[in-house]
Structure formats: structure tokens, C-alpha cells
Amino acid sequence: MNQSHFQYHVFFCLNQREKGEDCCMNRGAEAAFDYMKKSVKKQGLAGTGKVRINRAGCLDRCAEGPVMVIYPQAVWYTFVDNEDIDEIIESHLQNGKVVERLLV
């Protein structure tokens, strides 16, 4: 059996569309990405066999953004503030429980 390099691999849509079109970057995705990356490292969750937070281009869910997707389960989340990010870290990344209220 091939084991995943990371327990959880999180991809943040950080796409910037032209001419003011709806996109994750216009909804605070960069700040949320930075916050989650720092929080995961600070809590000792980052690294091989643990959690990896990555940038992604367009994930094609612009109207539902900002969005992130967590693999290997392919769970899609939206978020509005750092409290939402904290809840995803604690519930999903630490305890394996999906945060139903933030699902896309």
C-alpha cells in the first residue's frame, strides 16, 4: 500500500482574476493562507507525515470563494476569518472531523 507523503495536504486558491472579476484573492485568501501556514507550523503540525499548506492557482470555484481543499479526502471549505481557519485546523487537521458549516 502506498502511503501519502502528508496526512493532510491543503490547497488554497490564490488566483487573481483580471478586471476585478470575482476571485479568491479579492476575498482575503492570501491573508488566510499566511495565517494557516504560520498556525500549523506554530502548533507543530507541519511536515512529512503531517500537514502541508500549499498555494494553488484557480480551483474553479470562484463564486464560492475563498476556497481551500484538503486531500486526501477532497473536502472543500470556504472561510471568512481567522476563527474559521482555527476551527478547520482544530477540527479537521487535528481531530479528523469535517467542519460541516464551512463546506462548499
UniProtKB/TrEMBL annotation:
<protein>
    <submittedName>
        <fullName>Ferredoxin</fullName>
    </submittedName>
</protein>
<dbReference type="InterPro" id="IPR036249">
    <property type="entry name" value="Thioredoxin-like_sf"/>
</dbReference>
<dbReference type="Pfam" id="PF01257">
    <property type="entry name" value="2Fe-2S_thioredx"/>
</dbReference>
